[in-house]
C-alpha cells in the first residue's frame, strides 16, 4: 500500500504543477533538447545482473552507476 500511495501522490503533484504552470519548461521540447545538449550525455550501458543493453542519459560530470556498466 505505501508504494501505491506514493505513486498517487507523485501523480497528483505532477498534474497540479502542470496545471499551475510550475516547472512548465519540463514539458517544452525545445527546453529539453537544450538542457540535454548542455548538461547530459548519452551512454550505452549493460545491466550487470541480467546483461541487458540499453542507452541512458547521464549528467556530463557524473559516471554511470550500479546496476549499469558503460560499454564502449
Automatic annotation (TrEMBL):
GO terms for biological process: interstrand cross-link repair; recombinational repair. The keyword Oxidoreductase does not apply. Pfam families: Mgm101p. InterPro entries: Mgm101 (IPR009446). It is found in: Mitochondrion matrix, Mitochondrion nucleoid. One of its GO terms (molecular function) is single-stranded DNA binding. Keywords: DNA damage, DNA repair, DNA-binding, Mitochondrion, Mitochondrion nucleoid, Transit peptide. One of its GO terms (cellular component) is mitochondrial chromosome. Belongs to the MGM101 family. PANTHER family: MITOCHONDRIAL GENOME MAINTENANCE PROTEIN MGM101. This is Mitochondrial genome maintenance protein MGM101.
